[in-house]
Amino acid sequence: MKKIISTSLAPAAIGPYSQATEVNGTLYISGQIPINPASGKIEATDISSQTEQVFKNIKAILDEAGYSFADVVKTTVFIADMAQFPDVNEVYKKYYTNDSPARSTIAVKGLPLGALVEIETIAVK
Questions:
Q1: Neighbour order of strands in the sheet with 26-32
Q2: CATH of the domain at 42
């Protein structure tokens, strides 16, 4: 059975999609960009700070659904400048310290609202 997950502690969707959907013990989190949910804006200007905000948003959704970073099995990272990949990795490894999930990283021409990074996440219980 499909369940829509939503929390005010993560940014509201900026289009016709849900923050996350849970189906049969699997949580699919829509790509998160570095919007501060309190202001509704991207406040961070550098890739490291933007990546931190993305992970705060992911954590809020995981928490709302009753999951944790330990339950994450796959992420997809979209990055506007592959030269900043090492900076993203520095933040990323703070959240996945053991048994890191499978991951794809894709360089893109642009992201919503001019974000530098977007991360989508799949978690399983």
A1: 2-5, 20-23, 26-32, 117-124, 72-79, 102-107
A2: 3.30.1330.40
Domain extent at residue 114: 2-124
DSSP label of 37: T
- Rounded to the nearest integer, the mean pLDDT of the chain is 97
Q: What is the pLDDT of residues 19-54, one digit of tens each?
A: 999 999 999 999 999 999 999 999 999 999 999 999
Tell me which amino acid residue 94 is: K
Residues in the chain: 125
Task: Please answer whether residues 29 and 120 qualify as being in contact, where contact means their C-beta atoms are separated by less than 8 angstroms.
Answer: yes
- Give the pLDDT confidence score for residue 16 in this predicted structure: 93
Element (DSSP H or E) covering residue 36: strand 35-36
Detail the DSSP E strand segments found in the chain.
2-5, 20-23, 26-32, 35-36, 41-42, 72-79, 102-107, 117-124
